[in-house]
Protein backbone atom coordinates (compact mmCIF):
# COMPACT_ATOMS: atom_id res chain seq x y z
CA UNK A 1 0.00 0.00 0.00
CA UNK A 2 1.52 3.31 -1.00
CA UNK A 3 2.00 6.36 1.14
CA UNK A 4 0.48 9.55 -0.11
CA UNK A 5 1.06 13.10 1.01
CA UNK A 6 -1.97 15.27 1.30
CA UNK A 7 -2.69 18.85 2.16
CA UNK A 8 -5.99 20.12 3.42
CA UNK A 9 -7.60 22.72 1.22
CA UNK A 10 -9.45 24.16 4.19
CA UNK A 11 -6.87 24.52 6.95
CA UNK A 12 -3.63 23.74 5.14
CA UNK A 13 -2.80 20.79 7.34
CA UNK A 14 -0.29 18.45 5.74
CA UNK A 15 -0.28 14.77 6.47
CA UNK A 16 0.81 11.45 5.08
CA UNK A 17 -1.63 8.63 4.82
CA UNK A 18 -1.37 5.04 3.84
CA UNK A 19 -4.31 4.43 1.54
CA UNK A 20 -5.18 2.03 -1.21
CA UNK A 21 -5.50 3.61 -4.62
CA UNK A 22 -9.27 3.41 -4.73
CA UNK A 23 -9.57 5.14 -1.36
CA UNK A 24 -7.47 8.11 -2.35
CA UNK A 25 -10.37 10.32 -3.37
CA UNK A 26 -12.16 9.68 -0.11
CA UNK A 27 -9.41 11.00 2.11
CA UNK A 28 -10.40 13.89 4.33
CA UNK A 29 -8.40 16.12 6.61
CA UNK A 30 -7.94 14.54 10.04
CA UNK A 31 -7.97 17.98 11.64
CA UNK A 32 -11.07 19.59 10.20
CA UNK A 33 -12.59 17.01 7.88
CA UNK A 34 -12.09 19.24 4.88
CA UNK A 35 -11.25 18.28 1.36
CA UNK A 36 -7.63 17.55 0.61
CA UNK A 37 -5.40 17.63 -2.40
CA UNK A 38 -2.64 15.17 -3.05
CA UNK A 39 0.90 16.46 -2.86
CA UNK A 40 3.34 15.00 -5.28
CA UNK A 41 6.96 14.55 -4.35
CA UNK A 42 9.43 17.11 -5.54
CA UNK A 43 11.66 14.48 -7.09
CA UNK A 44 12.50 15.20 -10.69
CA UNK A 45 9.94 17.91 -11.15
CA UNK A 46 11.81 20.99 -10.03
CA UNK A 47 14.27 21.08 -12.86
CA UNK A 48 15.50 24.55 -13.54
CA UNK A 49 17.24 24.77 -16.87
CA UNK A 50 17.56 28.50 -16.74
CA UNK A 51 20.74 30.48 -16.45
CA UNK A 52 24.21 29.01 -16.47
CA UNK A 53 23.46 25.50 -17.63
CA UNK A 54 26.51 24.07 -19.33
CA UNK A 55 25.24 20.65 -20.21
CA UNK A 56 26.01 21.08 -23.88
CA UNK A 57 29.79 21.31 -23.89
CA UNK A 58 30.15 23.13 -27.19
CA UNK A 59 28.73 26.39 -25.85
CA UNK A 60 30.38 26.34 -22.46
CA UNK A 61 33.17 28.79 -23.24
CA UNK A 62 36.00 26.56 -22.10
CA UNK A 63 38.30 25.56 -24.93
CA UNK A 64 35.79 26.70 -27.46
CA UNK A 65 38.22 29.10 -29.14
CA UNK A 66 40.34 27.46 -31.79
ZN1 LIG B 1 -8.14 20.63 7.45
From TrEMBL:
Domain of life: Bacteria
Record SMART domains: CxxC_CXXC_SSSS
InterPro entries membership: Regulatory_FmdB_Zinc_ribbon (IPR013429), RPABC4/Spt4 (IPR029040)
Annotated ranges, domain Putative regulatory protein FmdB zinc ribbon: 1-41
NCBIfam families from the UniProt entry: CxxC_CxxC_SSSS
Name of the protein this chain belongs to: Putative regulatory protein, FmdB family
Taxonomic lineage: Bacteria, Bacillati, Bacillota, Clostridia, Eubacteriales
Amino acid sequence: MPNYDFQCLECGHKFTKLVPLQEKDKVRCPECGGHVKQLFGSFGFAVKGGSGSCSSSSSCGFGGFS
